[in-house]
């Protein structure tokens, strides 16, 4: 099927009234989650997975994608109004967004963030349409050995690019893979690490891990933070519509940010954080007045917001075409795909073009809905940041428990989630990143199967991973991605006394 | 206390336990696969063993910094309380969920949760808890067709 035919098919499905409603509901729910204090996008997507159980898979995925980019956008609202990044990818938005809010220009800053997200998001969807099928066709050449190496590279890239210690990221990765080995082995039927508990035979569902590590641990962590009082900020929104000058100043930044975001988002592990950082830096370099950055330059809001939204769609590109998630949130989406019996990757483009293209097409108007919702509702969303924590957090916990229970109707899963919450909080405290854990829980079984199939085909010769050119290159990249942070750190360390 | 050393030690125990369990797995013979169900876990257990030793070593190296309070991680008393209260509440909820039914246990869970987190607006708490329990119950049972435990209540 060629691309144009696919787009035509996709729009036909995506424009069904119910799917438009699901995209709108997803975008709205995602924005609310992004704005709510103490709930990040990963928790948000995981929390809302159970709601999509009864839905048709296409509609469910359309809604989930809406939640995903809605949450990305919602994070910017709190950055601008309260100087609190809702998630790490909107850290850069604080730099100029908050000064703008203090100058009484929060309204235009929020509007530019919305327009920038919309514009870059739309450009990236165009990119996804053309790049996705191409990658998918390339990936059809992959055998099990190549897939194993690709997954290993995806995991090590996330470990290597994570901001903290690569050692701790690797620990997180292996810990997640260990969780994935619990349950009945698919090839031999051997029960592994089940401790004679029949309920563990099916393995530990990724949703339990995601909600335990993120939702429960996040609740404990936000109980520790001081309650924010945003009442003062609410008065500062001012007029929402940006001036013609604002738009003119931001347009270039949106395009550049979108391009940087899409390219970085399509790299595993690159993701939204790095791309928003790079886009901000680039804007500062090309600006004729770099000194205004940090003091309320509107381009400083447009560029990182465009970049993080574009990156989230870039990340979806290889989730759809390779079946490899590059971030925690896309890992959770992959888990959801698998729950619906769909396996993202090259075969998805071939066997379920209706699902893929409907999802892609829905992103066009999903971004439009996001823009239409956000501009008039900015005041409402700002108010949501004021929901008291001690009212919200018990509900988050109850909803997480409900979500876990609906998977298998098993109360043991709720207990397991609570215990994983303890582990998650401890890991947060000692700076072991949580995203690689979820990533490896989702990829673990696929990785092991690929490894064993490759070994069987090669008659037990482990050399197959190196002698295949594609696989060998990917393994080399995997090793390099782990070495890069060491060099970076040494260079950074030579300047200061701390090594 | 140096948390890298503690974490390294805990992970070392985990790796040891995991490897011991791997060794005791019974492998079926005669299958036409090159490597069986033990190989991947062996790889993981060994990796974790090495990584935890590296973390221990790193924590050991940073001891002087800890003494000067640099790499110190503090646990405040209220933090330990929250760290224990949240999971205990969830586990209690799990234990009563099937006998009390979804509506009642969620109602109690929310009230207890709000109270533990220091919210003492009784009427508002009760209304929010009722609204949330009923709302989610009907959303899941009627709209999403998911069965939830009914408990002693007639609906």
List keywords for this structure.
heterodimer, A: 499 residues, mainly alpha, two-stranded antiparallel ribbon, 21 helices, 75% helix, globular, disordered C terminus, B: 155 residues, 2 domains, 71% helix
Q: What's the rounded overall pLDDT mean of chain B?
A: 85
Largest interface: A-B, 62 and 71 residues
The averaged pLDDT of chain A comes out at 83
- State the distance separating the first and last CA atoms of chain A: 55 Å
Net shape of chain A: globular
The gross shape of chain B turns out to be flat
Strand-and-helix sequence of chain B, N→C? HHHHHH
Unreliable spans of chain A? 493-499
Largest sheet strand order of chain A = 1-2
Strand content of chain B: under 5%
Please give the largest β-sheet of chain B: none
Work out the count of structural domains of chain B. 2
**Oligomeric form:** heterodimer
Number of domains of chain A: 1
Which regions of chain B contain 5 or more consecutive residues with pLDDT less than 50? Answer: none
Give the N-to-C terminal Cα separation of chain B.
53 Å
Characterise the protein shown here.
With 499 residues, chain A is mainly α. In chain A, 75% of the residues lie in helices and 1% in strands. Chain A has one domain. Chain A has helices at 3-14, 17-35, 41-48, 57-82, 91-102, 106-139, 144-161, 166-180, 206-224, 231-234, 244-265, 271-286, 299-322, 328-339, 346-351, 353-384, 389-408, 411-429, 435-457, 464-467, 469-495, and strands at 183-184, 191-192. In chain A, a hairpin with a 6-residue loop joins strand 1 (183-184) and strand 2. In chain A, helix 4 runs antiparallel to helix 6 (106-139) and helix 7 packs across helix 8. The longest helix of chain A has 34 residues, at 106-139. Chain B folds into two domains: 3-67; 77-143, no CATH class. At the A-B interface, helix 8, helix 9, helix 17, helix 18 and helix 19 of A face helix 1, helix 2, helix 4, helix 5 and helix 6 of B.
């Amino acid at each position: 099927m060629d691309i144009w035919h696919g787009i035509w098919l996709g729009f036909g499905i995506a424009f069904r009234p119910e799917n438009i409603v699901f995209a709108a509901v997803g975008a709205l729910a995602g924005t609310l989650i992004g704005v709510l204090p103490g709930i990040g996008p990963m928790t948000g997507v995981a929390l809302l997975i159970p709601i999509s159980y009864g839905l048709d898979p296409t509609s469910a995925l359309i809604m989930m994608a809406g939640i995903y980019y809605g949450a990305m956008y919602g994070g910017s609202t709190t950055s601008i109004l309260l100087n609190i990044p809702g998630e790490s990818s909107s850290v850069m938005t604080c730099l100029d967004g908050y000064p703008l809010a203090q100058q009484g220009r929060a309204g235009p800053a929020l509007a530019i963030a919305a327009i920038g997200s919309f514009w870059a998001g739309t450009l990236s969807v165009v990119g996804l349409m053309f790049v996705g099928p191409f990658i998918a066709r390339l990936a059809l050449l992959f055998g099990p050995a190549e897939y194993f190496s690709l997954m290993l590279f995806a995991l090590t890239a996330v470990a290597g690019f994570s901001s903290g210690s690569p050692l701790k990221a690797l620990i997180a990765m292996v810990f997640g893979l260990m969780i994935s080995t619990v349950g009945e082995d698919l090839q031999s039927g051997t029960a592994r690490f089940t401790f004679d508990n029949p309920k563990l035979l099916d393995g530990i569902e990724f949703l339990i891990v995601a909600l335990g590590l993120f939702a429960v641990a996040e609740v404990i962590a936000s109980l520790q933070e001081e309650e924010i009082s945003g009442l003062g900020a609410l008065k500062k929104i001012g007029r929402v519509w940006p001036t013609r000058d604002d738009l003119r100043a931001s347009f270039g930044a949106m395009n550049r940010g979108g391009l940087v975001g899409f390219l970085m988002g399509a790299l595993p592990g690159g993701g939204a954080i790095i791309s928003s950082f790079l886009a901000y830096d680039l804007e500062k370099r090309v600006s004729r007045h770099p000194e205004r950055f940090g003091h309320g330059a509107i381009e400083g809001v447009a560029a990182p917001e465009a970049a993080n939204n574009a990156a989230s769609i870039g990340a979806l590109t290889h989730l759809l075409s390779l079946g490899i998630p590059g971030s925690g949130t896309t890992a959770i989406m992959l888990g959801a795909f698998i729950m619906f019996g769909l396996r993202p990757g090259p075969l998805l483009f071939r066997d379920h073009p209706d699902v893929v293209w409907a999802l892609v097409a829905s992103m066009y108007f999903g971004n439009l809905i996001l823009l239409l919702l956000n501009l008039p509702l900015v005041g409402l969303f700002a108010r949501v940041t004021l929901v008291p924590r001690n009212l919200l957090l018990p509900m988050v916990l109850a909803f997480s428990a409900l979500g876990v229970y609906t998977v298998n109707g098993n109360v043991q899963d709720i207990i397991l989630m609570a215990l994983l919450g303890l582990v998650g909080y401890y890991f947060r405290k000692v700076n072991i990143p949580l995203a690689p854990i979820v990533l490896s829980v989702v990829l673990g079984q696929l990785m092991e199967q690929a490894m064993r199939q490759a070994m069987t085909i090669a008659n037990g010769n482990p050399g197959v991973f190196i002698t295949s050119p594609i696989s060998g290159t990917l393994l080399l990249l995997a090793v390099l991605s782990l070495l890069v942070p060491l060099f970076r750190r040494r260079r950074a360390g030579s300047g200061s006394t701390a090594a | 206390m140096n948390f890298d050393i503690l974490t390294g030690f805990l992970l070392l125990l985990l790796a040891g336990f995991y490897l011991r369990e791997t060794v005791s797995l019974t492998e079926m013979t005669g299958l036409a696969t090159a490597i069986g169900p033990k190989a991947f876990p062996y790889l993981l257990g060994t990796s974790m063993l090495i990584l935890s030793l590296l973390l221990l070593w790193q924590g050991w190296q940073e001891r002087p910094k800890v003494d000067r309070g640099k790499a110190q991680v503090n646990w405040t008393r209220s933090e330990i309380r929250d760290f224990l209260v949240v999971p205990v509440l969830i586990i209690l909820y799990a234990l009563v969920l099937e006998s009390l039914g979804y509506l009642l246990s969620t109602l109690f869970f929310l009230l207890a949760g709000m109270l533990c987190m220091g919210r003492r607006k009784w009427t508002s708490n009760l209304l929010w808890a009722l609204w949330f329990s009923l709302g989610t119950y009907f959303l899941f049972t009627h709209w999403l067709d998911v069965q939830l435990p009914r408990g002693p209540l007639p609906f």
